[in-house]
Amino acid sequence: MSDHVYKQIELTGSSKTSIEDAVSNALAKAHETIRNIQWFTVTETRGHVVEGKVAHWQVSIKVGFTLE
Prior knowledge:
The chain has 1 helix and 3 strands, in the order βαββ. With 68 residues, it is of the alpha+beta class. Strands 1-3-2 form a 3-stranded antiparallel β-sheet, with helices on one face. The longest helix is centred in the middle third of the chain and has 13 residues, at 19-31. It holds the Pfam family Dodecin. This is Dodecin domain-containing protein.
């Protein structure tokens, strides 16, 4: 096993459907331009409320990836 160096970035994904979809949306978008994504950590969950109901989920995550 070789030693690795990782970099972290922070992203916020959103979804009208669920927290999981918000995370998936953020990871899918990051995957378009970042190689070697290895893990994520949820740092904050919040939402937008309209007429007493959740209208939109927003989830902030830290994403770690291996540097080449």
